[in-house]
Amino acid sequence: MEFNQASKTVQLCAKGMELEGQGQLTDAFNHFNEAWSVATDDIEKCTAAHYIARHQKSIADKLKWDMTALQFALNIKDYSAGEFLPSLYLNIAKCYEDLRDYDNAKTNYLLAFSFSNRLPDNGYSNMIKGGIKNGLDRVNN
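User: That's the sequence. What structure does it adopt?
Assistant: Structure tokens below.
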């Protein structure tokens, strides 16, 4: 998916990721929150919500933000938005698994798998596909 590099939301998320990598988690979270507050379309809102989800202290709050990101992703009409879906469904499935709601976990792992053919052929794709496989293995046992 192409991101508008001139977008304030994209710039804030990129800076947040940089700060995250430096271990400056509070500053990163603040950037992601600001990105959420200035987001103007579904792609930007999906992106900001995804990063906010990563910084939640409870699984329930993480699930809420992952579901928010998914709702905005589902509003994106561009086919390339489908690259978001496997990762978002994977994150949601893992939340349900951590909450011991294995039926919803399995449903979301299967949804992640159903969209995995939209991923490009690269290391990121392999990581997501591996996460989906491992999750399905865990909830099917």
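Residues 123-140 form the longest helix (18 residues).
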